[in-house]
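Thread: "does anyone have the structure for this chain?"

Original post by V.I.:
We have the sequence but no experimental structure in hand. Need at least a predicted one for the grant figures.
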Amino acid sequence: MINLGIIGLGKWASVLATASTHSSKIRIISAYSRSQETREKFTAKHHIPHTNTVEELLGNPEIQGVILTVPNELHFEYAKLCAEHGKPVYIEKPITNSLVEGIKLKEICDRLGVGVFIGHVAKLLSGIQIMSEEIQSGKLGELCLIEGNFSNERALSLTSDNWRWYQSKAPGGPLSQIAIHMFDVFRFLGGSVAEISAMSSRKSPVGAEVEDQWLVNMQFESGTLGSIASSWTSPGVFEVRVVGTKGLMHYRLDQTKWGEPEFLYKDASLIFQKVGESFMHAVEYPLPPDNMFQKELELFGEMISGHSQPLFDASYGIEILGLVEASRLSAAQNCAKINLKSFLSKTEGSR
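Reply from O.Q.:
Generated one for you, tokens below.
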């Protein structure tokens, strides 16, 4: 059993704390928030003791790793503090609020020999895992196109006291908050991205700083193409379609249940449509019960035990955040194509 602490006790801390109760491999034994009221409410709800200072939590020798669910702009500060205390750290996506910070954090953690795990969880969904297996098996033939949409209604209720209102705290709005999950899924299914381009707009009437609509196109190093749509003025949508020379697969789930992973499979569908056949004859796959948040926490525990997790480590987190920032640059340059390797190299060199 791996003992974990958790810092930042908002909505997502509760989601992960609930997921941890289903595991026999990890457990959360200590919690911290800057707010005393929040600490007390979290302890009352989850029966997890809290500390009154972050130093007390990080100084506990029983804690083998720390989960960070603080706002994005605090990721670097708290992850650095965990590393300085020798604690492996799980960081809710993205790795940091900016690519420069992410690169710097990796350097610090590498120097201190501390493991970093980024919560890029969407690829653990059972439907995505089955898609990957079928791509690898050759059932779809040569992979040609990946399409995805992750949208919700967040921008319709934003106010200026919410951190997601501001570009400095939620760069690109849905791009860095939910479309980033699609970048993770696309990277998992299609491999490394060669070039990316994007456009954005603001359609929400609330007047937030951030954009609320994004269209992103990409070409993978394999030549496969990809397209992502993400809106913050939409009913909840999460769907992925992969197209190959022998057929396509289409996966959909109820995005409104994203924070209840144990129920996602019940309102999800995954179909295979063979080339030359009508969608009316598509084959539906059974989807097994699963819990992506429990799985990722257990993988974090495995990392702490010495098993590398290259699809969740700092380098991977930097690559995914690079896709976010390259998309923002493209949109600012009238949809110019951005070479990802050159962009990442230039960003690292600029430090």
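V.I.: this helps a lot. The chain has a mean pLDDT of 96.
O.Q.: and The first helix runs from residue 11 to 20.
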